[in-house]
Amino acid sequence: MTTLDSQADKTLCHLDKVSSTEVAEIPSDCGFHGRISPLESQMAGHLSDDKCRTIGMLRRPDGRVLKPVVKPLLGRREIAFYESLQESEDPIMLQLKSYVPRYYGTTELSVFGRRVTFLTLKDITDGMAEPCVMDIKIGRRTWDPLATPQKKATEELKYAESKRTYGFCITGFQVYCLSSGQLKKFGKHYGKTLDAKGVVEALKMFLNINPERPPCRQLIVQLLSFLWKILLFFRTQRLFRFYSSSLLVAYDAKRLQQYLPPDIDASSNKPMSVTNNHAATSNVFKPSDTSKSSAAEVNRNRTMERVHFTKRSISLSSDCNSSAKKFLNRSESCSPDFREHRLCRTHSYVNNFDDNISKMKEDYDALLSESSSSSEKQNWVRINMIDFTHVFPAEDPNALDLNYLEGIENLIKLVEMFLVSKDSCV
After folding, report:
1. Signed CA dihedral, 150, 151, 153, 154: sign only
2. Of 102, 162, 204, 400, whose CB count within 10 A is highest?
3. Alpha-carbon distance 154 to 148, whole Å?
4. What is the 3-state secondary structure (H, E, C) of the chain?
């Protein structure tokens, strides 16, 4: 078996050499304005812009993303890093491989009249209906050993208060707000303004936490399960030093709605009256003034109406099975059998049968896709380690990467605080 020392030497040889990755050619009919498009969920780095002729991350329809090699030296270094992960059989490297995006080699594409090399990676949001994504750069120190004095000074000023307090910074995020269905984006300029308190507020906003809606324990625990594993890895790995590397955190807001308490209206954050089931169905979610509501709000209201109608129908059904009870209790994820039950029900307990059936049909495609999708897509909470252009072999093979450890430990402490709340969604 390959030893840690020999693997470190092998990796050192890879880092500053051009990768032998096979380059694939994309046909001319799949250009920038065709099936390949800018990655809408990109939260950091240079964005794609036709007018400015800048190239950011792109997305293919097969669930893969293309990361451009903007600076040749840094690009070759990151490609070599992924290549070393592909080739290594060392236990530490194999463990690290499970935390990074799946790597498919490189691709060349003609963009704005010039040839560009891209890393081809798995899209962390693949299969998500409403992806909420946050880029968190880990480490107080974000400059590598080759940085010039000017580069060091520049990096020290970026996200200074956040890095000084927590050892990490939020470089950007997007979130679908459960109260309105609206997508909100916060870029790097917002992240640079965050102080210690602002970082906590940004995390709350990203996790859809507000005074009326407590933290969803199902979401928090799943996030922590990823973070704890990565923390354990950094408490053992001594091969590398990760500078300016990020954690990409993603979850599906559409799936998060399933874990709301039965008595909470997601569109208003107010408790629902359950005195009269028929009245609740016909009045609570009825968009009384469509002219003042956005299309997203109306769609969200209809979606939540279907969800609550489903729960009431099951609660009144005489043959309610155990999986349905688990769904109503919100103690476990919705099982495949129960999803089929939702698709196959044929009886309504509300007055306007035709209207409700019509509305439920709108959601059939999504339900069928959910029922038949892969187990990977069923995982609605995901975290990847990303950005490896500034990863270097450790100078001291006996020391841990304390810079990364400080950041991830403090991030975990902040996320763990959200579990303290007694009132939660699960």
Report:
1. positive
2. 162
3. 10
4. CCCHHHHHHHHHHHHCCCCCCCEEECCHHHCCCCCCEECCCCCCCCCCECCCCECCCEECCCCEEEEECCCHHHHHHHHHHHHHHHHCCCHHHHHHHCCCCCEEEEEEEEECCEEEEEEEEECCCCCCCCEEEEEEEECCCCCCCCCCHHHHHHHHHCCHHHHHHHCEEEEEEEEECCCCCCEEEECHHHHHCCCHHHHHHHHHHHCCCECCECCCHHHHHHHHHHHHHHHHHHCCCCCEEECCEEEEEEEEHHHHHHHCCCCEECCCCEECCCCCHHHHHHHHCCCCCHHHCCHHHHHHHHHHHHHHHHHHHHHHCCCCCHHHHHHHHCCCCCCHHHHHHHHHCCCCCCCCHHHHHHHHHCCHHHHHHHHHCCHHHHCCEEEEEECCCCEEECCCCCCCCHHHHHHHHHHHHHHHHCCCCCCCCC
> Contact at 8 Å (CB) between 8 and 393?
yes
- List the one residue out of 109, 116, 112, 88 whose CA is nearest residue 100: 88
Which regions of the chain are under pLDDT 50?
1-33, 273-293, 298, 307, 309-350, 361-362, 364-365, 367-368, 370-372, 423-426
Contacts 24+ apart (CB under 8 A), 213-216: 213/178, 213/179, 213/260, 213/264, 213/269, 213/425, 214/421, 214/423, 214/424, 214/425, 215/418, 215/419, 215/421, 215/424, 215/425, 216/256, 216/259, 216/260, 216/424, 216/425, 216/426
